[in-house]
Design brief:
- It is built from three helices and eight strands.
- The protein is α+β, with helices and mostly antiparallel strands.
- The termini are far apart.
- The relative contact order is 0.26.
């Protein structure tokens, strides 16, 4: 079974609370988020939510939702083991008025090797663009 990881991060001149406020304002994603264009549902551990990312729609299960710290979910393409992705947002307080935002995903499954190039280029670029847009919004206020 193939595996691939995307790890991105960006420093944001804002508190974890401010970043969290922007990150969890899912209704406004269509107006600013180039990667996750739609996020809906009850973000509670164990619940399924609806995500539209890169033109793909899926219903991952929430694994973590810790205010001002972490959001993590696990999604599957069609069925478990084919193409699974554990997506993670982490906010780290740098204790100096800035925060580090980590945006990561661990992919596992039979089809991961088939999509390796796209994950390394297009998907990684999508993560980085979302990070930049989040930074710009969080630093506005």
């Amino acid at each position: 079974m193939a595996q691939q990881t995307i790890q991105t991060s960006i420093e944001i001149a804002a508190t974890p609370a401010r970043i969290w406020e922007t990150l969890t304002d899912f209704e406004n994603y269509p107006s600013w988020n180039p990667f996750l264009t739609s996020v809906k549902g009850d973000f509670a551990v164990g619940k399924q939510v609806e995500i539209n990312a890169g033109g793909m729609q899926f219903k991952p299960t929430v694994l973590a939702f810790e205010p001002h710290r972490e959001i993590r979910w696990l999604g599957h393409l069609w069925f478990k083991g084919l193409f699974d992705g554990e997506h993670r947002f982490v906010i780290i307080d740098n204790q100096d008025g800035t925060s580090t935002f980590k945006h990561e995903e661990q992919f596992n499954g039979l089809l991961v090797g088939l999509f390796a190039k796209k994950l390394a280029t297009e998907t990684t670029a999508g993560f980085e663009e979302m990070n930049r847009k989040l930074k710009a919004l969080a630093e506005q206020e």
